[in-house]
Design a protein that fits this description.
mainly alpha; about 75% helix; 4 helices; elongated
Amino acid sequence: MLALLSMLIATSALLTICVLEPSLVLPALSILLFSGAMIAALFARAESENVTLEKVTLWDIAGAFTMMGCAAAIFSEPDQVALFFEPPTRD
């Protein structure tokens, strides 16, 4: 489960970096990492036993994704976030 979640986030992050223009990468990564944290927390909540991998639980992974999402949100500027949410223009 842990490896699957990690691969999902890693491939999504690489795709985001390759597809979006550089000014939009940090806001998109922030949203992606917060989504990954939500999914990890839901999986951790759904499991009845607390499965550990060398003392690392899904709750730890959810916390790490949240911290990275906060860091990406802090380093992005408000102008970049506004560009991310404005509709595309046709030239």
